[in-house]
Amino acid sequence: MSFCPLYRRGLNLKARDKDNTGEFKADPGEIPFIGSPPLTISTVEDLASIDNLPSLISYSPLNIPLPNGQHYTLLRRDLFDARFQLISESSAQEASEKLTFIDAPSDLVPGVYEGGLKTWECSIDLAAYLHTLEPGLKNPPCNLLEVGCGTAVPSLIFLHKLFQVGSSSDQSSRKVIHLQDYNSVVLQLVTLPNVILAWYSSPASESYRAQEDPHALELNFSEAGELALSPELLSAFTASLQDRNIGLNFISGSWNDTDTWIREKDIRYDLVLSSETIYRMASLPSFIALLRSSSRVSHGTETGAPQDAGGEPPPRPICLVAAKVIYFGVGGGVMGFERAIEEAGGQCITVFEQKAGVSRRIMQIIWP
Q1: Whole-number Å distance between alpha carbons of 359 and 368
Q2: pTM here?
Q3: CA-based, 20 to 30 A from 156: which of 71, 128, 190, 296?
Q4: What is the rounded (10 degree) CA torsion for 234, 239, 244, 246?
Q5: Helix or strand or coil: residue 203?
Q6: CA angle centred on 116, ends 232 and 10, rounded to 5°
């Protein structure tokens, strides 16, 4: 199984306003580490308000290559559009501070920015793997966590498919999706807009599109375009989540704080995803602790997978981590991660490997 490699365009000059995939560029000494931001848990209603979103966003299609030679198309907000929002809605000083990590030659600024505005190669690998994996699952995931989600492409695959299903009032069919990123600004600028775009390009939005503009039903989502985020659209979006019994939360902050919150709330997930998150060896202990607490075996809680009709325990949670084999210039990679997982009592199983070009893997993490 192999996937088409993607070419990364740098952020210098005109190309800096375009999203990209490829190798990290990092200079940890460039900007000093200033500590972790406070943990913030936001509901979709908190973020999806007219006060928190621009009136208009531009988007481009993201074609995810599948093993059968076909593509799965998602819509993704343009990076230049997110950058423009920062400039237009902030004071000069605020914009300068926020734009530091966009204009910096580094993709990683320790304690400030962890690369979440861009779509990286391994997130596309993971999305494609999920697309092929889901039909074979005996029990579709009920509760999903994406760690270090950024543009949230793997979760968008899951959400886009949920939006193709009709409404449901059955509480046993409730889906809980938590999207975590270090930076709250990333969740606001790209994660939530991408979720809205996943809804807008699905059958779930057809009634809204027909009501607002009958011609919108004929939109070609394989082309770039713009979307007006009106109060009516946002209301229809949140109503679709409620109709389909989807709970959506956004978590910003460090992995340590997120781990503590998950343990305190005793939250159980049956699908945990992460991509391009093992690039720095120093952060592995907190990352692995979060993976372990979030993918521990569920015994049936309010937010965990319930027992089946026969009283059998739910299936073991699936934890998938996609990464490059080596992160040049940063220090992390698959070998160090596998060693750290084994030292923590877990096991790494490679479920996908790309050897051509930039070597990449998807690993399933299994805990005893």
Answers
A1: 29
A2: 0.84
A3: 296
A4: 60
A5: helix
A6: 110
| Of the candidate ranges 108-112, 293-297, 350-354, the one whose mean pLDDT is the lowest | 108-112
Neighbours of 214 (CB within 10 A): 9
Angle 263-268-270 from CA coordinates, rounded to 5°: 145
User: Is residue 258 within 8 Å of residue 269, measured between CB atoms?
Assistant: no
State the burial class of residue 225 (Cβ atoms within 10 Å of its Cβ: 0-12, 13-18, 19+). middle
Q: Which amino acid is at 227?
A: L
Q: Return the SS3 of 350.
A: strand
| Count of CB atoms situated within 10 Å of the CB of 24 | 20
Query: pLDDT tens digits, residue range 116-136?
Result: 578 889 999 999 999 988 766
Q: Look up residue 132 and give its amino acid.
A: T
How far apart are alpha carbons 177 and 169 in whole angstroms?
A: 17
User: In this structure, what DSSP letter does residue 189 have?
Assistant: I
CA-to-CA distance for 244 and 162, rounded, in angstroms? 8
Backbone phi and psi for residue 64, each to the nearest 5 degrees, phi listed first: -95, 115
DSSP assignment string, 12-66: SGGGGGS---S---B-TTTS----PPPPEEEEHHHHSSTTTS-SEEEEEEEEEE-
Largest CA distance in the chain: 61
Confidence class of residue 211 from pLDDT cuts 50, 70 and 90? confident
- What residues contact 48, with CB distance under 8 A and at least 6 apart? 192, 196, 234, 237, 238
Nearest Cα to Cα of residue 155 among 127, 118, 128: 127
Predicted local distance difference test score (pLDDT) of residue 13: 26
Give the dihedral of Cα atoms 195, 143, 175, 70; nearest 10 deg: 50
